[in-house]
Write a structure and sequence with these properties.
4 helices, about 190 residues, alpha+beta
Length: about 190
Amino acid sequence: MEKKILKKRLVLKKKVRIVLTKTMLVIIIALVGLIMIKKNPDIKNIIVENVYEKSFKFTKTKELYKKYFGSLFPLEKVESKESPVFNEKLVYSDQKKYKDGVALTVTENYLVPALESGVVIFIGEKDDYGKTLVVEQTNGIAVCYANIELIDIKLYDYIEKGELLGEAKDKKLYLVFSKEGKYLDYKNYI
């Protein structure tokens, strides 16, 4: 009995020692970083430019993390065995250029599917478009889905290809494709 207790204490001490060592390393790295920033203002400018002024690509980060470290959540593999109830492709009867994108004529109460997987980066109203949802796809292209009533979608949700985004209003669905601030020709994507 004493050996088991002694063994547990040794294991606990080892774990505590590891946690303390990692904590100290993080503190040392942070202090060295702060000293470097203080001594060299160019480093501070580089950090401000890359962290605060550039658009952060959530989907690229997720794909890189998944490629090198695997799943962020261990339960993701369990969930992937289930197939979604709604997994549709885009269907429309007519298309016309509209401002920076396209206006699609769809059926009444049309359920809008996601064209590709990605992260929701905007939900709100846009002039001349109405209720809008913007998804940054894993390929870096931002797709603006407009004139839709949203169905249980929140900001920064990860959306799978074919997943239900919402319901089109007035038999019109507006799509705008852009990458790095430049509008793309919709004909290549629908």
